[in-house]
Specification:
The chain is of the alpha/beta class. It folds into 3 domains: 8-86, Orthogonal Bundle (Arc Repressor Mutant, subunit A); 92-157 and 257-284, D-Maltodextrin-Binding Protein, domain 2 (3-Layer(aba) Sandwich); 159-256, D-Maltodextrin-Binding Protein, domain 2. The protein is 38% helix and 17% strand. The protein has helices spanning 8-20, 23-30, 34-48, 64-88, 100-107, 111-114, 167-170, 192-198, 216-224, 238-242, 271-284; strands at 53-56, 59-62, 94-98, 123-127, 139-144, 152-164, 230-232, 254-264.
């Protein structure tokens, strides 16, 4: 007689905790509270009769048995996802997880063109900058240096930054030199020193806004309202410039070292995922302008 397995959700939580090395990040990924994750792990340890994590203050370390078990759970989840996809047949949606700015500013305006292809399938988009479990996506678009050894990686376009601001804010000061931007409030971004250096000016004490935003999308929204000057990608935010919501006062753009990459999940690298990758690569070389973003 087979012994009863622990709840599947508890095993899924264990896999996420081991992968992230954090109850909090696992909770964020799974859409539950950190307290709920902690309780599930305690119950799972009690049911299995083994310790899964060593806790030392705020630090969390998975035990060797937890790492092994989590890897086997991940393999099992991939098998289950593949089985469900095969059962659903050709109507299965392609699960694409992408960073918020890439998804809203580059991908969404072009999806209508993707669906003109004979091999197009429905697309389910997940907007997130966090790494997802390999069982939760077919294609991922992430920014980084290309270090994703478990996936087939395709380099798309470099991460770019150039100052953008609202026309109303631009009218408050004469912007004859990149150094004049220091007279205006700047929205926080790590690349400001690099951009000023690239523009050939030295700014000793730039004035930064008190508020900080976690995404470029929020930076752009704040800049449109005149809160300050944002460092944004002229490629991703091209429609905002075309629509006149923001202006780019100087041509200098810093690019890299990070790039936008497409990650193909080996467990789901079927014709649909490969066709989507081929379409996306073709779009990157297409000079045609996409529809304006809202």
């Amino acid at each position: 007689m087979r012994k009863r397995l622990p709840p599947l959700e508890s095993l899924r939580i264990l896999e996420s905790c081991v992968r992230h090395g954090s109850f909090t990040r696992a909770a964020d990924e799974l859409g539950v509270t950190a307290a709920a994750v902690s309780l599930r792990i305690r119950n799972l340890e009690a049911e299995l009769g083994i310790r899964l994590f060593e806790r030392s203050g705020p630090r969390l370390q998975a035990t060797a048995v937890a790492v092994t078990l989590a890897g086997q759970i991940d393999d099992a989840l991939r098998v289950m996802h593949s089985a469900v996809a095969a059962c659903r047949g050709g109507t299965q949606a392609l699960r694409v997880t992408a960073t918020p700015s890439f998804a809203s500013r580059w991908l969404a305006p072009r999806l209508a063109r993707y669906h003109q292809r004979a091999d197009a399938v429905p697309v389910q988009i997940d907007c997130s900058a966090e790494q997802r479990s390999s069982g939760d996506f077919d294609v991922a678009i992430r920014t980084g240096l290309g270090a994703w050894p478990d996936f087939t990686v395709t380099r798309l376009l470099p991460v770019e930054s150039t100052p953008m601001l609202s026309p109303s804010l631009a009218s408050t000061v004469k912007l004859s030199s990149p150094a004049d931007l220091a007279k205006l409030p700047l929205l926080a971004h790590d690349d400001w020193p690099r951009w000023f250096h690239h523009a050939g000016v030295r700014v000793s004490r730039p004035r930064f806004c008190a508020d900080e935003y976690p995404t470029h999308e929020l930076d752009a929204a704040a800049a449109i309202e005149g809160a300050g000057v944002a460092l944004l990608s002229p490629t991703l935010f091209a429609s905002t410039l075309r629509d006149g919501k923001l202006v780019q006062p100087f041509p200098e753009v810093v690019a890299g070292p990070k790039w936008h990459y497409l990650l193909l999940n080996p467990a789901a690298a079927g014709p649909a995922a490969q066709g989507f990758r081929a379409w996306l690569q073709a779009e990157l070389t297409d000079p045609a302008q996409p529809p304006s973003s809202p």
